[in-house]
Amino acid sequence: MDTEARYRLLAASPFTRTDSSGLVTEARGGKLREIFHRRELLGLLVRRDLQARYRDSVLGFLWTVIRPIIVFVMYFVVLGKFLRAAEGVPDFAVYLFAGLTLYSFFSEMVVGSASSIIANAGLVKKIYLPREIFPLASVGGAAVMFLIQCGVLLAAALIFGALPDDLFQTLWFFPSVALILVYGVALGIFLAAVNVYLRDVQYLLELLIMLAMWASPIVYSWQMAASAFASFNLPSWLFEVYLNSPVTLGVLGFHRAFWGSGTAADYPSHLGLRILIAFVVGLILMFFAHRVFKRLQGNFAQEL
Hints:
Number of helices: 15
Shape: globular
Radius of gyration: 23 Å
Largest sheet: 2 strands, antiparallel
């Protein structure tokens, strides 16, 4: 190809915009457009993540069902029977399983996303990809596992006859999952970037995730938490912080979808409005988390 032909080819090529770190950005649509153009790659990463979970395992994806059932049985026997937590909660099995299912989704999203950049260090150092695709792939893998576990939960609710009589109540599934998804993505993107620079984050996160489960009404009712706050004379605003945390609100909404034994007294007032406000706050946090991610991603290859 002669020089003139090269100039014509360059003149016909569209301009490519880069950010301050030299990373390619799309002229229109930003990162969403860029990720959409690589949706097939995102699907491949999700599939790879799912296949790697139980590689060389005889039972394979059956562990997706076996693990939550074993955890459920352990909590049900120890807490429900030995410690008699089930005595104050009708259909305690479904109540417990619903909370564990949603919380497992949240924890898998956050923990998987936090280590996603480090786990894909080879790709990050060799080729350019929108870095957000790696935590999003972890979220996608967690979502597939969550849907399988939801099938088990639905089957259990049908067997125990625990579903709400008004089937419209099951629509609480969608705002509850949307709320958990927004905060899971926001935290996952933020921690994925920070973990590249501070490797202790992933170990601290495992501890915080364990503590967060006990700080949510999964193995107990939120009224029990209210009584505990009152008995210790803790300030009322502290209880409001507990009650309006996204995990608490998501679990309560999930209970409304699958646990038909609950009455109006089993849920705080204006639950739908609380979820909506928390969702909007989550979108704002996601925006700022992505800003942090974009600011830190320029040196990922060097740090890895």
